[in-house]
Amino acid sequence: MAGSFCKGRFFSLFDYKTEKYIVAKNKKVGVLYRLFQLFVFGYIIGWVFISKKGYQETDEAIQSSVITKLKGVSITNTTESGLLVWGPEDYVIPPQGEAVLFVVTNFFETPNQKLGYCAESPKVLDGHCRDDKDCKKGKMVVAGHGGMSGRCLRKDENSTGTCEIYGWCPIEKTNRPQRPLLTNAENFTIYIKNFIKFPKFGFSKSNVLQTTDESYLRKCRYNEELHPYCPIFRLGDITRRAGFKFQDMDTFGGSIGIMIEWDCDLDKGDCHPRYYFTRLDISGCNKTLTTGFNFRHTRYFKNAAGESYRSLFKVYGVRFNIMVYGKAGAFSIVSTAISLAGGLALLGAGAFFCDLVLLYLIKKGEAYRERKFEGSR
Amino acid sequence: MAGSFCKGRFFSLFDYKTEKYIVAKNKKVGVLYRLFQLFVFGYIIGWVFISKKGYQETDEAIQSSVITKLKGVSITNTTESGLLVWGPEDYVIPPQGEAVLFVVTNFFETPNQKLGYCAESPKVLDGHCRDDKDCKKGKMVVAGHGGMSGRCLRKDENSTGTCEIYGWCPIEKTNRPQRPLLTNAENFTIYIKNFIKFPKFGFSKSNVLQTTDESYLRKCRYNEELHPYCPIFRLGDITRRAGFKFQDMDTFGGSIGIMIEWDCDLDKGDCHPRYYFTRLDISGCNKTLTTGFNFRHTRYFKNAAGESYRSLFKVYGVRFNIMVYGKAGAFSIVSTAISLAGGLALLGAGAFFCDLVLLYLIKKGEAYRERKFEGSR
Amino acid sequence: MAGSFCKGRFFSLFDYKTEKYIVAKNKKVGVLYRLFQLFVFGYIIGWVFISKKGYQETDEAIQSSVITKLKGVSITNTTESGLLVWGPEDYVIPPQGEAVLFVVTNFFETPNQKLGYCAESPKVLDGHCRDDKDCKKGKMVVAGHGGMSGRCLRKDENSTGTCEIYGWCPIEKTNRPQRPLLTNAENFTIYIKNFIKFPKFGFSKSNVLQTTDESYLRKCRYNEELHPYCPIFRLGDITRRAGFKFQDMDTFGGSIGIMIEWDCDLDKGDCHPRYYFTRLDISGCNKTLTTGFNFRHTRYFKNAAGESYRSLFKVYGVRFNIMVYGKAGAFSIVSTAISLAGGLALLGAGAFFCDLVLLYLIKKGEAYRERKFEGSR
């Protein structure tokens, strides 16, 4: 007896149990449910599988290396600096070819500054004075250029003057620049070498054509159709593609984002870089106070007597920020199963909703309720 | 006949089929299931929809541009360097206003180094010698300052000396600094201009007030309530908000993280920057050997004879690392459906668990099993 | 009556309703479904819970700070530069110890350049000329070194010459380098200090041993088993672990990625850094034109008369890019529930598939259909 019981148990283990359904011959709810089913299958096939490629395992941990190199030369002529030749070693800051780089398009040099005493710039609010008492000796001028000596320098007794300071003299005379000095910066070219790896799939690629023709990379220019693997861009073209003229930003400076997107479908072997350009410092077309980009840097010298003097450069220019992102996908049975199950779970939600309609919203609901719930009374 | 069969088939296609349930008049399991349902609905509404905003499509691929500018000036007086004025062009490294920047708070200058022969620093273990044989000519001193000349320089024959090296002489005399030299670095201000874009929604914003009042950004200071769009911070305030005194890190240096978070709900038009500050080089409050941040940089000069000499600066200071992250969300019907279905899937798990209780854990389980599984015997 | 009705309603609220199943005594489908169930439970336990740790809440927003410091010294001897000593302050660019750093292994100096007139380099295609008309005065030489003066410099009337330019003269004589000059760069060591924080869990850690033994970090070398918390690496070891010899990249330069991975299981208190090294500028082992890494930088001087002159350095070297990524996980009841429900949803998909087999693919399907769908006729 026990044996046959166990045997029965054992066999019933392999009996397939399937939910019992009752058929509600209600066309409205039936059509509603079928429509919902159609929608879900459409969603699974169209959205999850075709658009989102839910059958693929993806790797978003892209490893990327960016190297940049600029070419072009410009000559400027100013009263302060004389005739000056600017090569990439001068106008690219920092010069080491990073993914974030600044290209000088305008500058103002204050040469031969020495440590000493002179009047603070009248533009510094905290340096204004009417009296020596306003310039407390040793006090630093807030947002200014040095420490107060204790003297107030005025034209005459009734006017407002500025404190004398100890600092690098003469003080920089900043004026709003009128026009860019590196006039042909627009024609400089930037070579962007990007190398990516998707470690999960052991896949790596570069955005540069693997060629043995040495002269190709000297002469080519990027073109989406003709030269997609020649990553050399004219600066003027970059700003144009970002929706701006180079002239909009060469006087006061600006900031441009260069996005390189790698959206790789390794099943198809389809993995190409796409370039997007966007201006990063302006919203819409309203120019505001906060637009522009400049900073100061210095070159230090020593004279024969060992005294230090320096040239202070206020440089305006365009900052390029190269950002690489991407993902790679390849078929995976686990991803397929999860995507499928996730979609099918939606069917349950639809059945739940149709049940509510059937049992509570239509006239014969009470009858269906009794049939659906066996033993409810 | 075939027609009527097909017609039957066709109509039965639109019959709605709904699962048949049996009602188990067992209050314990019933209450258990209702509680579970309540929990799931609470979870869906409270967690998924209100807290996690599951009805929104999100964009986490934030594009960000950070520009920084420091203001403030300091004067130092040391025997090696004399009276020196430090402006942002000197104490910010690199000077180009990047998102990662270093502010000098302390330094040690070794001026007028020339290439030549001198004794290696006694601090370099590998440079110690008792004999000329310890200083093999041409060998580089590991972690030292130059190449050995072959001579061992000792006070007398019995003492331990250091090898003579060819290098930049005199060798830097490093001592543990006692106090910071840029004493008012705490009062320097940093202006952080951050511009973000969410490409999926075409939404962009800046953390700087769009004002026509030129003087606003000269005078304002950040204040969460009063001036949330004035991104100008005193360095001392930043370290204070990170939980440290500026004096904890101005002598030996340190590292501060400035996080800007944009958590944008575009449905409500609610998109504001929030600032978080954290010290990045210390855990808890235990100071260890590894704390501090310093590096060396040089300035090269040439004398009238064309010979090179240089100033070596060992600078200590605070590194600021500005990190921007964020996400934007906006209503999407697909996201709503997925979140809903995911939540409802939980109901199935609850029913599965209650079934187990009903069929196997309570006394009348056998009876329910027979009713639930039709035709099991 | 109404009271008893309501009471009935109220009690039926707590009746547990469970789906009615019909038992199909079909062993094939039964075994199929059981196998599927086994697969799903295996998937949930093995993949979701053990491999993916689905019971944990994770924090992927790792906050990281990287500081680097190099040690080592090298002496070079060239006709242009003479005997030169290179310390970290010279060969690390930029010197401030960032996560992206460049180590000079080879260089070519063009000393004493002055602004003036000289012949363009014959390597610049755009500077070639047969006639003064080819050198339009004031025109910039594309990818060249200056602006044309209007003269064509030729050996004799029939040969091709180069335009005279106004630029920094003499022009750099670039030749393909034959061998590296900083021969012992391989033995330089890099100290990588990484500090991470997982803000969600308030957990922070460093990759440096917290020791009071000052000499430990002077002498130790990284070793996965013996010294996992001594983050000091020989450059040669780094390239070797990336699968390349240092000699493969010291002449022309290269790019190495150093990945630090923190995969933390905070439940077990298991949180250690792991280091991975990969070459970022080469795919497979084919060397192409695009390999190598070099850039130019300058040092400016002024002579007694105030005239500027400069040294132009073309430096070749290895760029190290330190990338930190990681995640931390800790037990969370919500994550457990979601993972469980997601896995169980798969069961529904399996039942759906088995139903199709039972009802439409096996012989007795019609009979099962009638039993499953009550009232279908």
From TrEMBL, chains A, B, C:
It is a multi-pass membrane protein. GO terms for biological process: calcium ion transmembrane transport; response to ATP. One of its GO terms (cellular component) is postsynapse. It catalyses: Ca(2+)(in) = Ca(2+)(out). GO terms for molecular function: ATP binding; extracellularly ATP-gated monoatomic cation channel activity; purinergic nucleotide receptor activity. It comes from the Eukaryota. Glycans are attached at residue 187. ATP binds at residues 69-71, 189, 294-296, 314. Its main location: membrane. It is found in: Cell membrane; Membrane. PANTHER family: P2X PURINOCEPTOR, P2X PURINOCEPTOR 5. This is P2X purinoceptor.
